[in-house]
């Protein structure tokens, strides 16, 4: 039962040993232990700050990436729109050029047809004139086969000419 009811001397010595232990601990162990705890706490706080900063940086990078994607999509759409406009312009120009060439070919063909027609008409007129002259020559030779018929024809022609004057 001595342990349950301690005596004054035991209590006194235990208190002194406890105080010496606290003094020794305070002098030699608490500073390094508190320093280590403070260092650990500081490193944890730094790690948390770094994590927060990294999270913010990741959010900024994500926002930048989304912005870059939007810009890239807008650029792509602009390039595709420009390509469509260029395609339509080229098709329109090609169609207009083809139409102009076709019109020029048709006009040239019509001109060629007109010239060929005129040439054919001229040739036909010359041929008809030549045939007419031949026929007239044959008719006149037949009618003017005698001298008397020739004199009558000359008189008639002179009469026609004098009435015209």
From TrEMBL:
F-type ATPases have 2 components, F(1) - the catalytic core - and F(0) - the membrane proton channel. F(1) has five subunits: alpha(3), beta(3), gamma(1), delta(1), epsilon(1). F(0) has three main subunits: a(1), b(2) and c(10-14). The alpha and beta chains form an alternating ring which encloses part of the gamma chain. F(1) is attached to F(0) by a central stalk formed by the gamma and epsilon chains, while a peripheral stalk is formed by the delta and b chains. One of its GO terms (molecular function) is proton-transporting ATPase activity, rotational mechanism. The gene is atpF. Component of the F(0) channel, it forms part of the peripheral stalk, linking F(1) to F(0). The b'-subunit is a diverged and duplicated form of b found in plants and photosynthetic bacteria. F(1)F(0) ATP synthase produces ATP from ADP in the presence of a proton or sodium gradient. F-type ATPases consist of two structural domains, F(1) containing the extramembraneous catalytic core and F(0) containing the membrane proton channel, linked together by a central stalk and a peripheral stalk. During catalysis, ATP synthesis in the catalytic domain of F(1) is coupled via a rotary mechanism of the central stalk subunits to proton translocation. Residues 44-89 form a coiled coil. The chain crosses the membrane at residues 12-30. It holds the Pfam family ATP-synt_B. Belongs to the ATPase B chain family. The keyword RNA-binding does not apply. It is found in: Cell membrane; Endomembrane system. It comes from the Bacteria. This is ATP synthase subunit b.
């Amino acid at each position: 039962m001595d342990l349950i009811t301690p005596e004054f001397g035991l209590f006194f010595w235990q208190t002194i040993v406890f105080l010496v232990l606290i003094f020794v601990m305070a002098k030699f162990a608490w500073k390094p232990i508190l320093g280590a705890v403070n260092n650990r706490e500081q490193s944890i706080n730094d790690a948390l700050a770094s994590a927060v900063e990294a999270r913010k940086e990741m959010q900024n990078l994500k926002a930048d990436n989304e912005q870059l994607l939007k810009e890239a999509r807008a650029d792509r759409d602009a390039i595709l729109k420009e390509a469509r406009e260029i395609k339509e312009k080229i098709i329109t120009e090609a169609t207009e050029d083809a139409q102009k060439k076709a019109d020029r070919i048709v006009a040239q063909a019509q001109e060629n047809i007109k010239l060929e027609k005129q040439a054919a008409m001229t040739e036909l007129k010359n041929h008809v004139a030549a045939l007419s002259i031949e026929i007239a020559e044959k008719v006149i030779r037949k009618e003017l086969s005698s001298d008397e018929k020739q004199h009558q024809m000359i008189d008639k022609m002179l009469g026609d000419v004098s009435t015209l004057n």
